[in-house]
Specification:
With 521 residues, the protein is mainly alpha-helical. Helix content is 71%, strand content 0%. The protein has 28 helices and no strands. Helix 15 packs antiparallel against helix 16 and helix 24 packs antiparallel against helix 25 (460-472). The longest helix is centred in the N-terminal third of the chain and has 25 residues, at 150-174. The two termini are 25 Å apart. The model is unreliable at 1-30, 127-157 and 364-387 (pLDDT under 50).
């Protein structure tokens, strides 16, 4: 998944506070006090950490990191309002209650006692709110609404609150914070247990947490409420496939496709299950051909199609599919390798050697950081064919038109032709790297970026593209170095510091990560 940056400060604190020295204070940076919304957001991340067995040291570091924005008294005042709101809801919130009790048992801060009391009161009621008598009960008593305004106001507030928690859960899912997402969706469902979007999100989070049975039950609950929900049928099929239940997965996907026959990814997934799981390659071909009717420019689908023909030893058809793959993506290494095998099976040995050489050339290009030459020809091109800057500019302009229209595959094809016509056209290489990254071709993107940076080492746009590609490949050491180069050119750009902080955290350099996050602030 591509990451969505939600709030600058949140990105780091919700994953930080691991092993390492405590961060140094930053007295020169004055931060605004945490709002109630921010307190709630951070506190839920803390409860997520508690669920992952944070110890007392990590919990203390959490509050230490936020000490300039919220004192213990501020947390106490907010916690009472938070508990007041939660206890006034006519629904069970057992998971939240358990986490609050865990927090009270982990932290020595005085307001942790209040959190424990709130948690025990949430756990004490089976269905509706039943606030037990305790030292904090008076402070947590729900305000009594006026008879005239209560029904309308509560309806509006509840719907807004549900949507807010659903949105929060989706953001957490995008950031791979599955426990936090689960808490958010549970909060939404505590207000409306028939909220389909929240149920699907909850099932997704459960599936990512490997709580497969609970995820299955949740998807099935969605389908009980909305049997025509194509998304839920598709997700259910995905999970069944992961659980190695291909027949059940195909049945679920078929229902999804009845409802939404234009879902390309479900056609692709169905083909994978039919071919790789069940060996029904002809049926897999039919599924992938359906996908190609919807997206004929997807190189991955053409590649899979070639695999199906290869599995059935229909080598000519396999070569045709891989040729189409390479027409769309000349840098698809596995397609060159497979094509070489197929050509060898057909006795076309010289062509097989050429295909293998192309695959080796991509390996060398990757190792040396230079782009592989897209042309297949061995002999030198005539001067007028090998260097055509006017045609390259024309191809580049067409690529921009396609890019602006959202046609990334078409844009990439024009860019391939632009750099083939004029290998020194750096703006085409730059744009090529960006498009490749957006298509998920991260290794190829880095190669294109390196071609630009060899001549223009300070090109900021290219430095950004390269750093993002490295980060998406989870090559954290190289990504950290790349963000340093970005920050040399743009030392005050917040997002660059945020990304550097993420890389440092992944490397276990927590003190430096916190410092990077402070720079972002």
């Amino acid at each position: 998944m591509l990451r969505r940056i939600v709030q600058a400060i949140v990105n780091l604190f919700r994953r930080l506070l691991g092993i390492g020295s405590a961060p140094a204070a930053e007295p020169t940076i004055q931060q605004a006090p945490l709002s109630d919304a921010e307190c709630e957001y951070y506190f839920l991340q803390l409860l997520d950490g508690i669920g992952q067995e944070w110890d007392r040291v990590k919990v203390d570091r959490f509050f230490q990191a936020l000490r300039d924005r919220a004192s213990d008294e501020r947390w106490l005042a907010w916690l009472r309002r938070f508990g007041n709101a939660r206890l006034s809801e006519d629904s069970t919130q057992a998971e939240l209650g358990r986490r609050l009790v865990q927090f009270s048992q982990t932290s020595s801060r005085h307001f942790a006692t209040v959190a424990g009391e709130i948690g025990r009161q949430l756990l004490a009621r089976p269905e509706a709110m039943e606030v037990s008598e305790s030292p904090v009960a008076p402070a947590l008593a729900a305000p009594t609404p006026t008879p005239e305004s209560a029904p309308v106001t509560r309806s509006v507030v509840d719907e807004a609150e549900v949507q807010r928690w659903v949105k929060r859960g989706m953001e957490q899912l995008d950031l791979d914070r599955y426990e936090a997402a689960l808490l958010a969706f549970d909060r939404a469902l505590a207000l409306d247990d028939r909220q389909v979007r929240a149920l699907i999100g909850r099932a997704d989070a459960l599936a990512d947490l490997q709580r497969s049975q609970a995820a299955l039950e949740t998807y099935q609950k969605v389908l009980e409420l909305d049997p025509n929900n194509a998304e839920a049928w598709g997700r259910l099929g995905d999970l069944q496939h992961e659980l190695k239940r291909p027949e059940a997965a195909i049945e679920s996907w078929d229902k999804a496709l009845e409802l939404d026959p234009k879902d390309v990814q479900t056609w692709i997934n169905k083909g994978v299950a039919l071919g790789l799981r069940l060996g029904r390659w002809q049926d897999a071909l039919a599924a992938w051909d359906k996908a190609l009717e919807l997206d004929p420019k997807d190189a991955q689908i053409w590649f899979r199609r070639g695999v199906a023909f290869g599995a059935m030893e229909q080598w000519d058809a396999a070569v045709e599919s891989w040729d189409k793959t390479l027409e769309l993506d000349p840098y698809f290494r596995d397609a060159w390798i497979n094509k070489g095998v197929a050509l060898q099976k057909l006795g076309r040995y010289e062509e097989a050697i050429e295909a293998n050489n192309r695959a080796l050339g991509l390996d060398v290009a990757k190792a040396e950081g230079v782009p592989a030459e897209p042309s297949k020809a061995k002999d030198p091109q005539p001067a007028e064919a090998s260097s055509m800057p006017e045609r390259a500019e024309d191809f580049y302009r067409k690529s921009i038109e396609q890019y602006d229209s959202g046609n990334l595959h078409a844009a990439l094809r024009f860019l391939d032709r632009a750099v083939e016509a004029d290998p020194d056209n750096l703006q085409a290489w730059q744009q090529r790297g960006q498009v490749q990254r957006e298509l998920g071709q991260f290794e190829a993107s880095i190669i294109s970026c390196d071609r630009v940076l060899a001549t223009q080492p300070d090109d900021v746009k290219t430095l950004w593209t390269r750093a993002l590609a490295l980060q998406q490949l989870q090559r954290w050491e190289a990504a950290n170095t790349a963000w340093d180069k970005v920050l040399e050119q743009q030392p005050d750009v917040k997002d660059a510091w945020i990304h550097k902080g993420i890389a440092l955290e992944k490397l276990g350099r927590y003190g430096e990560a916190i410092e990077a996050n402070k720079r972002a602030m």
